[in-house]
Design goal:
Layout: H1 9-12, E1 21-24, H2 34-43, E2 48-51, H3 63-67, E3 71-76, H4 83-91, E4 95-98, H5 101-113, E5 117-120, E6 134-137, E7 140-146, E8 152-161, E9 166-167, H6 176-179, E10 185-194, E11 213-216
Parallel strand pairs: 1-2, 1-8, 2-3, 3-4, 8-10, 10-11
Antiparallel strand pairs: 5-7, 6-7, 8-9
Length: 233
Amino acid sequence: MINKKVANVDAALNGVKDNMTFMLGGFGLSGIPENAIAKLVKLGVHGLTCISNNAGVDDFGLGLLLQKKQIKKMISSYVGENDEFERQMLSGELDVELIPQGTLAERCRAAQAGFPAIYTPAGYGTEVAEGKETREFDGKMYVLEHAFKADFAFVKAWKGDAAGNLIFKGTARNFNPVMCGAAKITVAEVEELVPLGELDPNQIHIPGIFVQRIFQGERYEKRIEQRTVRSRG
């Protein structure tokens, strides 16, 4: 069994450079790779293309990279919680590609499975399909969407072992699984790194073959994106 464990986030991000393309798991602020994002901020890499369902909030998640002007392009499906994102997009500082959420997931999954492209009905007849190949199957029109190409995928899991086997918890099981193995190098940060053989094989969501590096993260904030409570009395 190949040991994928690395000592810390510094070793996990070895090889990260300017102008790379990254996939980052998470949905809103749930299940985001907090340690990897914080390290990317400290490294100061620029010119990044980031593939993520959303862009975090102004002072957390990918919002931290946006504050430092480290991202040149965002490929996302929902970006409505970040004022700095909006400002940079409207000013032309940030290139933005908005994708239907299901298409975003399937383009990740296609890369994971080694497929060069997929056909999807989502977006046909809209701006999403402009300039793209379309084809009819059984009387229904589909749009050709290419699989993503990324240098690194950064994902967050609940538990993992040294072989890279991963278990996700709750809503964190969102875009993280489909991004595993969808880039040249997949880095998994986990809340709990356990010895080999301790994970129940029937509970594993992603096998270690899709992961190249794994480390135990620390000091997770797990912020709530929007807290709504009922007024008292």
